[in-house]
Amino acid sequence: MSKEEELLRRGLTAAASRAAAPPDLFDKVAGARTRARRNRTRLAVAGGTLAVAAVATVTAVATLGGSGTTQVTTAAAGLTASCPATPADPQHALFNAWRGPTRVDPAPRRVLVCSYVPHTTNPLTWRLAASTELTGPRAATVAGRFNSAPTADPRQRCLSAGHEELWFFMTGTSTTAEVRAQIGGCGYADDGTHAVSWRYPDPLTEGSAAS
Amino acid sequence: MDGPTGFSDYVAQQRGALVRLAYLLAADRDAAEDLVQTALVRVWPRWERVSQGTNPHAYVRKVLLSVFLNARRRWSVREVLHPGLELEDTRNAYGHVDEADLMMRYLRQLPRRQRAVIVLRYYADLSEADIAEVLGCSPGTVKSQSAKALVKLRALLSVGTQLSRQVEGGR
Hints:
Chain A: The chain crosses the membrane at residues 43-64. The complex is a heterodimer. By secondary structure, chain A is α+β, with helices and mostly antiparallel strands. Chain A has one domain (39-210). In chain A, 23% of the residues lie in helices and 29% in strands. In chain A, the strands form two sheets. In chain A, strands 1-8-7-5-6 form a five-stranded antiparallel beta sheet. Chain A has a three-stranded antiparallel beta sheet with strand order 2-3-4, with no helix packed on it. In chain A, helix 4 (136-147) packs across helix 5 (203-210). By secondary structure, chain B is an all-alpha fold. In chain B, helix 2 crosses helix 4. At the A-B interface, helix 1 and helix 3 of A face helix 1, helix 2, helix 6, helix 7 and helix 9 of B.
């Protein structure tokens, strides 16, 4: 092997090792800039009835536990819809597959939005950061946007998305649908089959503007 | 979500290697993750068949290369920095970081296909015949692409060295 080839191999190996480094170690600024440019949302629908109960006054309770037990719970009289500690099993290579209703109630009583951000030490996993409840027109806005979007399967998970969200639609006495969303996701457009992006604005931002 | 048998295990074992390869190709960590994820999404529906083949990883790598080479816009709209522009910033105690940083800058200067040839040859350690098979071209084309890439890399290295000397001389 020539010295030139050896240098090349060494340089490439050194460069490749940076792929595994935490984003904020080398590319903090560049990464933030890249994410700021992104404005895409990917959605996947997972069918799910979480709970059935009566809805009365609603309170939000944050409970921070140990690893894997962090939960933010929205509790109503007899109804509890919880934000899981992670949006999905991190072992899953694909974000999710559609296996639920394609349409939700256009006027849900409430929508619980669980927001996740990448772990700083392990960007391949997500941690619960916040939960927000939407009601009235804000909830209807989210439902309307979801209902007007196309569906495709499988939905891919984009690991460099800004954050992920779970939306729990609650109507009447039950949680009727669970939607997995990626806000500010990575975009690419080379494949007509899989590059489907539902360009949702962040429902929280949108909701704030609407209310 | 239940995936095809063995797919999750494969991803758990090989994802890191795929991301490193994709990082050299795309010269951007986020883009590398996208690239790998796109390749995995494409392979996923065919995994039952792919996993029965002789070398599933080679197949996935080929898909990854195909995604990279066929992406017309996304991967080309990237920041392109002059190789010597930030020499002063990289002159610090972190020599290995400098080396990696310079390598990525130089790689970004190469056309996509030449970059793929260099990465496959000198990082993935594939033979010219294997590279030709992955890229769907003749070994002769691989040879010529490699030669052109090396010429360009030498030139970039030369410019970088000269600028570095100028910076040092100016102090």
